[in-house]
Every structure is written in structure tokens, then in C-alpha cells.
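I am still learning, so would you mind making up any protein sequence you like and the C-alpha cells describing how it folds?
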Amino acid sequence: MFAKNIVGRHGSDRKEPPLFSSSVLTLERGMMQVRFFEFRKFVVLALAFVFFTGVSCSSSPVSNQNANPDTRVFKDALGRDVSLPRDVKRVVSLAPNLTEMIYAVGGGEKLVGDTTYCDFPEAAKSVQKIGDTMSPNMEAIIALHPDVVFVSTASQIEAFMRTLAERNIAVYVVDAKSVEEVLASIQTIGDILGTKAEADKTVAALRERLDAVRAQVRGKAVRRVFVQISKEPLFTAGRNAYLNEAVQIAGGESVTRDVPGAYPKLSRETALKLDPDAIIISDNEGNHEPNSAFAKSAAVKNGQVFRVNADLLSRPGPRIVDGIEAVARDLHPEAFKEK
């Protein structure tokens, strides 16, 4: 099973027998306190995210296109201009990573609904639940009268948006495909919620921590890393996954960084050829040890297998920095010893 909020996005369907399959994860991967998505939900969510491929996620206000002084226009991850009240008071989040962003920028008091998988921070557990990302309760959402619904998956997005549009409820899509885009999304959500100053402060602190990691691992030997998202079947981070950048910041190089897609499924034959010298396991139910294909790899032989909380790795939100710090300490422990 996969962690509950891997914010999906992704690969491409292939009809010929490939070295890997194009299935991908999504947002409901978590990014463990811990409850998890069932594998089938993961695959459905991942495939849904193919819809987003090629769309930029850097969102920004485009107020010069808006003549109404009471509203502002923001461009979302689908490239849509979304008109929102200048003073947003009520919001709904349909993904754990977005819920974490909302709290990180000081907008928790405006969150009136979130998913059953939204479990961080602690306050998120007390927010009214409106189902999960894959099957939200539309009646419950409408009854909350939100100014905007934040989503991070393309699952049934057209019908979803049409239903809410009929009730004058805006839908804003976030789809961060890199660590930098995660930070930009945090700032945009802060801008939308009227907490831009706190969002800027939060992002500045996160950037400072990332710079500190880069400084710590600078000059260290780059480790060849395999990121194991799921043991059986074997899913990893492909070319379009932000986790490759996360590994790079931590002083490693993903051995699957050139594999097409975001979260491809690898065949045993492909996995046998990788021979990583370190394996990072996104620690979640059913994914605690390396796949048997790595039994003779340098990583397993030398005891270089590390488990990292899946919520930290798989939720593209503020805690991705915690995940990067954890990976860096695993790959280069000598760089973090107190002097």
C-alpha cells in the first residue's frame, strides 16, 4: 500500500511492454502519523494526474485583468484564471499537502472543510471532513459555503468544477512538480488567504534550511540513490517527480531520474540493473524493506537502506524540507556530526 497523499501527477500510458509501467502516484500519498491509501486508490489517483502533464504549476495573481475591485484573479496549475474574493474567509482543502500549506501560512482559521486523510497539523483533525480526494462529498462541500476549494488532483475535475461553478464556488488547482514550485505554491496560497507576510516568512525559513543542507553536503561524494515508493509492485520516482530534486539537494543522485513519467512501476529486470549504493524507502504500510530485486545491490550489502516517514517525502508541502533533511543525514551522516 502507498502512503495516503502522494500528490499524483504524471506518467504516460504505454501500450508496448516497457521496462516500467506508466502508473503514477498522487497526492494522496503521504506526504505517517499514519494511515494509508490502498494501492488501487493510489493507481487511480496517479492515472488521473496524467491530465496535468505539461501544465505549469507556478501560480500568480493576474489582477491587471480584473476590473472588479472586490475580487482578484489568480492563475492556477491548469492555466485557468480563477476569480476569488479579495477577502477570502472560508476555504476547503481536498488534499493533505494543501491543508498543511494552509496552516503553514497562518490560514487555519479559514479552513472549514478538509479530507479524512488530512491529519497534520493536529488541528486539521478537528476540521469538518468532506470525504477524501477521490470521492469528496459534494453536498457537504456546498453546505460549507466556501469561497474557494483547493484541489491537487485531476480526478473527475471537469464534473467537479462544473458542479461547484453552478453554486458560484471557485476551484483552485495546485500541482507542484518541483521543490521550488512547492515553495511558490505556499506563497500563492498565503496571498490568496490574505496572509502573504506570514507565507513569505515561512518560505524564507524553508529556503534557509534548504541552503543549510546544500552547504552541509557540498563537496561530499554524490550517492547513487533509489527511492522506493512501493515494494510490491515496485514504484519509484521517475523523470517528472519532485523527489529527484529532493534527493539531489540532499547530496544524492536518483538512479531513476531519466525514467519517463513521475512515478513509474519498474520491472524486476530493470531494477536488477540499477545497483544503487543507497536506498531510501518511503516508509508506509507494506513498504518497510527493499524489493527483493535489490538483494545483491551495493546498498543492501553495505547496509545503506534507510526508511523515511512517507508523509515527509510524499506530500509536496512545507514538510518536504523535513524529508530532505532526513535523507541528507542518512546519505551523509558525517556532514551532520556536531563539531
Q: What stands out?
A: The radius of gyration is 20 Å. The domain at 60-206 is CATH 3.40.50.1980 (Rossmann fold). The chain has two domains: 2-51+219-336, 60-206. The CA atoms of residues 105 and 198 lie 5 Å apart.
